């Protein structure tokens, strides 16, 4: 019984009432006591919600549990003190006019609205924690990829990379030249066969010039076999083409190996530099706030719940002032 009475006195204190005066000076002490205990409860509820919300908010940038719980406790005591002040200093009196009373009421309602909005934000962060974390993580990943892409673009616009591209174009030209000579050599082999067989036939091959397939001719066999024909000349021409292909191919392979080494070194340096770009993995309070703002803009469900919660907490904090104003004036 004594414990219950002490708890009731605590709620009376929260409401700003004097338990001793209610018991001694009120004709309806039980009724008045119940009324002010109810008011004390409306003071305690926002403070409790504020404790959980502020502790969670502090935990996003403070990793020590004792510290962020202490921060939540201090903030909830601040809310508790302000709400108690709002209730205890608002009272009806036959000695003062209604204008003064309602002016004080409106001022306290405005303060209560501000407190409700302050409490609602970290509480919303707590409710949508998983969605906010996923959104913040996706944002960090996008920012990281943007930094990497920007750096890679900067490097690929550098003089070193442009020189490598120029070398690659030269290698493409060398390879195209070798390919053409190999087609010519194949055609000469066919011409040699036709010349040795004693038939008259033009030997042709196709190559691509400017993206178009163009017919080329390497000669026509004379139809005379042996010394009267062009077999020896064709054979010598084919030998010169073979030597040219072998020399160009050797140079191409050497240049290609040098280019591949340089390009591999460039890509390795690029990968090393991009790996040094720090990826922001810290999802602190500000990151969560930004993620919540994005979710509110993009997700209608989150937006609806957010505003319902905001309105509920604002009304909850205003409730204690409104109750004090609308309850009939008692003997206390």
Which descriptors apply to this entry?
332 residues; mainly alpha; 78% helix
Q: Give the number of DSSP strands.
A: 2
What value does the average pLDDT take? Answer: 80
How many helices does DSSP assign?
10
User: Which value, in Å, is the CA radius of gyration?
Assistant: 44 Å
Share in β-strands = 5-15%
Report the span from N to C terminus.
24 Å
Task: Report on this structure.
- With 332 residues, the protein is mostly helical.
- Helix content is 78%, strand content 5%.
- The chain has helices at 2-14, 19-25, 29-59, 65-88, 98-127, 129-156, 159-197, 231-275, 285-298, 300-326; strands at 202-209, 212-220.
- Helix 2 (19-25) runs antiparallel to helix 3 (29-59), helix 5 runs antiparallel to helix 10 (300-326) and helix 9 (285-298) packs across helix 10 (300-326).
Topology of helices and strands:
Elements: H1 2-14, H2 19-25, H3 29-59, H4 65-88, H5 98-127, H6 129-156, H7 159-197, E1 202-209, E2 212-220, H8 231-275, H9 285-298, H10 300-326
Antiparallel strand pairs: 1-2
What's this entry about, in short?
The protein contains ten helices and two strands. With 332 residues, the protein is mainly alpha-helical.
């Amino acid at each position: 019984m004594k414990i219950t009475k002490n708890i009731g006195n605590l709620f009376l204190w929260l409401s700003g009432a004097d338990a001793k005066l209610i018991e001694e000076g009120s004709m309806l002490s039980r009724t008045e006591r119940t009324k002010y205990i109810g008011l004390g409860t409306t003071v305690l509820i926002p403070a409790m919600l504020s404790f959980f919300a502020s502790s969670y908010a502090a935990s996003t940038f403070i990793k020590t549990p004792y510290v962020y719980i202490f921060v939540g406790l201090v903030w909830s005591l601040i809310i508790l003190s302000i709400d108690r002040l709002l209730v205890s200093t608002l009272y009806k009196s036959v000695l003062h006019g209604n204008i003064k009373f309602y002016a004080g009421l409106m001022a306290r309602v405005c303060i209560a609205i501000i407190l409700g909005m302050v409490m609602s934000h970290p509480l919303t962060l707590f409710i949508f924690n998983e969605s906010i974390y996923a959104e913040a993580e996706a944002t960090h990943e996008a920012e990281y990829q943007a930094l990497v892409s920007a750096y890679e673009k900067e490097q690929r616009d550098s003089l070193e990379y442009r020189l490598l591209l120029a070398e690659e174009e030269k290698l493409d030209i060398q390879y195209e030249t070798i390919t053409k000579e190999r087609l010519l050599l194949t055609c000469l082999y066919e011409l040699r066969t036709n010349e040795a067989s004693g038939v008259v036939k033009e030997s042709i091959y196709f190559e691509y010039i400017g993206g178009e397939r163009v017919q080329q001719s390497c000669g026509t066999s004379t139809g005379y076999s042996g010394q009267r024909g062009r077999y020896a000349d064709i054979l010598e021409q084919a030998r010169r083409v073979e030597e040219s292909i072998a020399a160009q191919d050797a140079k191409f392979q050497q240049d290609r190996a040098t280019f591949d080494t340089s390009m591999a070194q460039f890509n390795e340096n690029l990968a090393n530099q991009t790996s040094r770009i720090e990826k922001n993995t810290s999802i602190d309070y500000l990151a969560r706030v930004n993620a919540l703002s994005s979710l509110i803009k993009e997700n209608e469900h989150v937006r609806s719940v957010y505003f319902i919660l905001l309105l509920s907490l604002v009304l909850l904090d205003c409730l204690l002032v409104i109750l004090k104003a609308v309850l009939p004036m008692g003997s206390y």
